[in-house]
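Project standup — Tuesday

K.O.: blocked on the structure for the chain from last sprint. Re-posting the sequence here as requested.
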Amino acid sequence: MRTRRIARPARRCAQARGRMNGTERAYAIRLEAMKASGDVIHYAFEAVKLRLADRTWYTPDFLVVTPDRIEFHEVKGHWEDDAQVKWKVAAEQFSWAAFAACRLVGGQWEIEWYGKEEPCRG
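H.V.: unblocked you, prediction finished:
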């Protein structure tokens, strides 16, 4: 008897760690402008890895240091369910930081904050 192979859905090509995609590069330009204005002291791409559970990790796109706090920014064109769950779990476990989900919609950045209240800056 022949073994049948089950067709699996096509997987999206994984992005190489440490390399920004186009949306992340656009967001880095925004962060650079915020750094020039003094709203951001420092930012770094994929600089930290947060442990959520045994063998479960979350790497935020950007670590952002402001004059008031530490923030983790996730830049997404599209949310996969597991990515959104990890983002929310990280925000709950690391409540000392603010977590932002950032989407570029129609040329404008939409920022959703989770955990801490939204900062007062432009």
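K.O.: great, moving the ticket to review. Residues 36-114 form one domain. The helical segments are 22-37, 81-93.
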